[in-house]
Amino acid sequence: MSHNIEKVSSTKRKIAITIDANEVNNSINTTIREYGKSLNLNGFRKGKVPASVIEKRFGEEVYNYATENLINATINKILEEEKIRPISRVQFEKQDEAKKLTRDNNFEFTCTFEVLPEIELPKDFSEYSVNVESEEVSQEEIDNFTTQIRRSMATLEDVNEVRNPIDGDVLMVDVEGSYEGNPVPGMGAQNFLMQISDNKDATNKEIDALVRTAKPGEEVKGTMVCPEDYANADFRGKTIDITIRLHKIHKQILPEIDDEFAKKVGFNDVATLKEAIEAQVKQSKVTYVKNKAQQDLITTVLEKYEYELPESMVQKALSNYMMEARNHLGQQNIDPEEMIKALASLKDEGQKIAEKQTKEHVFLLAIAYRENFVVSGQEVDMYIRQLSMETRQSYEQVRDHVLQSGMIQDIQERIMAGKALDLMYEQAKHVEKAQ
């Protein structure tokens, strides 16, 4: 067997392989023996069917197996010898896709695949510093989280007096957004429940302010600047005409935090509940601080690097972005034609986001491979369990989907990238951010 490796680009390799006739014959003979071990054929004892009979009766199937086995074994051997780690599926030249082994003849084929670009990584990341916010939790943060829990268990009471909405009210409204006289896709809802926010930094402040001027049964009109994260990129930053009709005002009745409430949410008493709330807020703060600092660090580091990105990785990231956008738009009951337009408007943004994500992922994988990080089966299992909780699906459903869709490698790479980011964060200098 001989092979020649061509460096097509910094992220693509092509291998031309020639397997001599002896290896071809050996592969065919081995496959016939394996095939015959469990073969039941009239006139012969199980496992005792002559090779010549098997080859004559089941030749096409046998040769298909032999070809696939020999190709896979040969590629794996070359990759191991050359210490090459593909990050994409192996693609065969079109003229080689239908080739099969034939006795007494050499077998030649050519395949291509992508690899990580060669990145000159620093010895460590001690030269970098990262601002880290305080992990201390304020009483206000605990109170806010407690209020969220109370609101999740709140009841609504109709407001019969004729008045304008105030902080905390839950309103039933119709909302319609238009631009230059035409409806804005996704910016319209009937009998929509919205809560008047007491948070001065809340989003949709224009809608909040506008609806406060209405009384039940009234219709009010105003304008708002379309958010920069709006699903349809064509409308971002544009001034949209808004019409709101207020149907009802509900007063939100929050339950008291007492022993009775604690038992409803699964705790023995209010003291135990408050301890759990404080612990949860602290854990969330620690996670938030670390994640933010890590993202700032990787962004700072990558400002110094430029390298070619594997196209398959970029396309996978773009595909995931567009799928999430489609799911989000689908939840808004947008007309199919408008959905197509909205998705088209997001393509350029999706491409930039996919390239940024891929650049980070490639860099972290390069670190992981240099450090010889490995991922255990237990770590994959924990990841799947976490995924099942986030998606609110059973562990078995998520596990089966992962196995059937071939996501195991993706999960392993994500875990390795996470370990690499943790290493960067540990080695960098931590500077406590001023409050």
Question: Mind sketching the topology for me?
Answer:
Elements: E1 2-9, E2 12-19, H1 21-36, H2 51-57, H3 59-82, E3 91-92, E4 107-114, E5 129-132, H4 139-152, E6 155-158, E7 170-179, E8 182-195, H5 205-211, E9 219-225, E10 239-253, H6 259-264, H7 270-302, H8 311-330, H9 336-345, H10 347-370, H11 377-391, H12 395-405, H13 408-427, E11 429-432
Parallel strand pairs: 5-11
Antiparallel strand pairs: 1-2, 2-4, 3-4, 6-10, 7-8, 7-10, 9-10
Helix pairs in contact: 1-3, 4-7, 7-13, 8-10, 10-13, 11-12
Structural account:
With 435 residues, the chain is an alpha+beta fold. It is built from 13 helices and eleven strands. The protein has helices at residues 21-36, 51-57, 59-82, 139-152, 205-211, 259-264, 270-302, 311-330, 336-345, 347-370, 377-391, 395-405, 408-427; strands spanning 2-9, 12-19, 91-92, 107-114, 129-132, 155-158, 170-179, 182-195, 219-225, 239-253, 429-432. Strands 6, 7, 8, 9 and 10 form a five-stranded antiparallel sheet that branches. Strand 1 (2-9) and strand 2 (12-19) form a beta hairpin. Helix 1 packs across helix 3, helix 7 crosses helix 13 and helix 11 (377-391) crosses helix 12 (395-405). The protein is elongated, with a radius of gyration of 31 Å.
